[in-house]
Amino acid sequence: MHEYDVWLPHARRVTVERLGGGPQILSVAETGLAEDSYSYTEQYPVAAGYSAAGEAPPPGLCELRACGGLREPPTYRLNIQGKIALIRYGNVFRGDKVRNAEQAGAVAVILYSDPEDDGYQRGAVYPDGPFRPPTGIQRGSIKVGAPGDPGSPGRPALVGSNYPAPTTGLPEIPVVALGYAAAAELLDELAGPTAPVAWQGGLPATYRYGGTGLPVRVRVEMEGNPWRRIRNVVGTIEGSVRPDEWVIVGAHYDSWTHGAIDNVSGTAAMLEAARLLGEQAAAGNRPDRSLLFAVWDAEEWGLIGSTEWVEEHARELRDGAVAYINLDGIPAAPTSRP
Predict the structure, then answer these.
(1) Domain 227-326 maps to which CATH number in 1.10.150.170, 3.40.1390.30, 3.40.630.10, 3.10.180.10?
(2) Which of 120, 126, 157, 165 gives 152 a disulfide partner, CB atoms 3.0 to 4.6 angstroms apart?
């Protein structure tokens, strides 16, 4: 067991409230499905990993695909100073989108999955197919830069290190994610010119940009203690010929929700391989090199657990690591039911 104390501020509650066009609090939870009993159990709030806490007042909302005109002609760059930016997933890493929006003056960001990219325009949606259903939400970290604990860059966040809170590299605005059903309720009310063809998506609405916007309030509440203890578990089958040479097999065991594919699939496959090879070793059939089987914590937040372990064992890895086999999201569902 390898433990580290890292900066992982967890959200406690998220609300997105539409204040114009018929005020209402939008649904920010994934709807349960009769075919999947686990879908009714507790969900992590839809705040992005490393979102800031806070409440964004409702000066307006602009619909963007990528802030600052990224991947679009400069003529379509928008003034989002003091506004909430509704940003479509795709093309650019979500953390870069948020950083660009914050640098452009946005007071909050709402990320959403468009059905043209991951939904009914691609094929059958879950549970009839693999694509995202209307309330399905893509959670993820928005940390940019080097992987690992942002409070101890380049150093392992060992228990008792007492590193200070990070002061750079993380957003200072609230960031949440929505499914396309909730995003459609915002897009329907947006004013302004019709967006370019490159910005149009798969929802039955005219995508617009600029204009007066739509009053929206975004609120993210955090748990009290932003520090978390994470735990990697590493098991070793010592090699019989070259024990100082390591072949490492790794899989992360954390997830945003239940993680059936990301990454129960990889963890289960790795554990079964470790069980079978462990039986062989116990019977006297040991591998030539040492085999290390590792399950990593806090991968979803930015490769935190594995990075801290590498920083702690950098010298041994330089001297002895031969190969690394990563098991992450290894199966795929069929595109439709038989």
Answers:
(1) 3.40.630.10
(2) 157
